[in-house]
Amino acid sequence: MQVLTFDFHNTIANCDPWFDLEVRDLPWAVIRYLDCCLPGLDQARVDGAYRQLRLEVIASGNEIDAYEAVGLIFGELNIRADRDRIQGAIDTLMYRTIWATAPVPGAVETVRHLHAAGVKLGVISSAVHHKSLDWMLERLDIASCFDTIVTSASCGFYKSTTAIYDESLRHLSGDAATSIHLGDSLRWDVATAQEAGMTAVWLKTARHETFVTSAPEVTPDLTLQSLEQAGPVLLDLLERTRIPVDA
């Protein structure tokens, strides 16, 4: 079956406070929320430990979700807090950021256009807190347009491995050879999706790649400057992708 999947952050929506927690601030924010900082422990040390953990995740391709990650950091730093308190703090902190969710121009209209045309849609996101995507998509009033939402937290794989794409296609009963992924990262949304056998559409933005030191040598199958009026363009690409080259 032919499907189309979207990246989330900077593709469907922006939510910088949430993203900052995801990639940098989460353990320190939990420490402050639970008021459990130890004498002599500062934010730089906590942030450094979390960054190292994230780099290890990317290198291995095996995700560690928000709850486990903060638990590991707390254990490393000898901070005592039970798992339920950690989980409650994380859910609260993440939910407090949702107000900042703003759609990327044209994204909501494009999703609705494709959904109305009968395209099977999914979201594939390297996100350590799955609930946040559910909350943000509901806030944008497009959650019902998607047949599946796969995060690295929910499937256990980061976008540095094709496994997250394979798992998403499995959820959608999708065929990689005729399916499309759209996102704003050359490394995570174009290169890895193409490695998984999908057609990759790059949404060109001014974003700074997180955890990427240099741009990969990769050529998107299609580059979009904006998602405004992108629905018909993507439907055309789906049609061309569906038809064999030698037909």
Overall description:
The protein is of the alpha/beta class and 247 residues long. It has two domains: 3-14 and 103-242, Rossmann fold (3-Layer(aba) Sandwich); 17-98. The chain is built from ten helices and eight strands. The strands form two sheets. The chain has a six-stranded parallel beta sheet, sandwiched between helices. The protein has a two-stranded antiparallel ribbon with strand order 2-3. Strand 4, helix 6 (130-139) and strand 5 (148-151) form a beta-alpha-beta unit. Helix 1 packs across helix 3 (66-76). The longest helix is centred in the N-terminal third of the chain and has 19 residues, at 16-34. It is elongated. The chain starts with a strand and ends in a 5-residue tail after the last helix. The model has no long low-confidence stretch (mean pLDDT 94).
Topology of helices and strands:
Elements: E1 3-6, E2 13-14, H1 16-34, H2 43-60, H3 66-76, H4 83-95, E3 102-103, H5 107-116, E4 120-125, H6 130-139, E5 148-151, H7 152-155, H8 163-172, E6 180-183, H9 186-195, E7 199-203, E8 222-224, H10 231-242
Parallel strand pairs: 1-4, 1-6, 4-5, 6-7, 7-8
Antiparallel strand pairs: 2-3
